[in-house]
């Protein structure tokens, strides 16, 4: 189901809780909502649709994929500043990102994965994990 994008900073500044297997339906709503905004959106966190759960969806060159309870366990490279936009607010804001991150997460089957991401995909994941932590750029 396509959901409304939340723009209320009071909700978006709240830290999300870990997702459970029963929360998988939220990922489908994230996918539907991401697809509805595909022209200007490459990632979403569950709090952007009103669900305070640690679930993110990323759309990279291989297509969209979901991460449950993602955690950055290692950053590599020199951090850089970049202007980022977000569906949850107007305009862009400057933020600090790492060019390479290693992330532990649960996949669609709720199996633990550890994977390294680079460049733009790493940037998107960092942005969405910030959302889960109640951090708005």
Explain what you see.
There is one protein chain. The protein has about 140 residues and is of the alpha+beta class. About 25% of the residues lie in helices and about 40% in strands. It has three helices and seven strands, in the order H-H-E-E-E-E-E-E-E-H. It has helices at about 10, 25-35, 120-130; strands at about 45, 55-60, 65-75, 80-85, 90-95, 100-105, 110-120. Strands 1-2-3-6-7 form a five-stranded antiparallel beta sheet. The model has no long low-confidence stretch (mean pLDDT about 95).
Write a brief caption for the model.
With 137 residues, this protein is an alpha+beta fold.
How are the strands ordered across the major sheet? 1-2-3-6-7
Please report the total strand number as a whole number.
7
**What overall form do the CA principal axes indicate?**
globular
Q: Uncertain segments of ≥5 residues (pLDDT<50)?
A: none
Percentage of helical residues?
10-25%
State the major sheet.
Answer: 5 strands, antiparallel
- The computed structural class is alpha+beta
- Gyration radius, in Å: 14 Å
- Give the H and E element order: HHEEEEEEEH
What is the CA-CA span between the terminal residues? 26 Å
Percentage of β-strand residues: 35-45%
Helix run count: 3
- Name the average pLDDT: 96
């Amino acid at each position: 189901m396509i959901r409304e994008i939340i723009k209320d900073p009071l909700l978006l500044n709240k830290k999300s809780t870990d997702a459970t297997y029963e929360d998988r339906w939220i990922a489908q709503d994230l996918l539907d909502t991401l697809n509805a905004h595909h022209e200007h959106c490459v990632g979403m966190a569950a709090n952007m649709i009103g669900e305070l759960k640690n679930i993110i969806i990323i759309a990279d060159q291989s297509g969209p994929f979901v991460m449950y309870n993602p955690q950055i366990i290692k950053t590599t490279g020199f951090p850089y500043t970049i202007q980022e936009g977000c569906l949850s607010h107007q305009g862009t804001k400057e933020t600090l990102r790492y060019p390479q991150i290693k992330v532990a997460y649960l996949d669609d089957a709720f199996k633990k994965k550890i994977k390294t991401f680079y460049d733009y995909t790493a940037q998107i994941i960092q942005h969405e994990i910030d959302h889960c932590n109640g951090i708005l750029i």
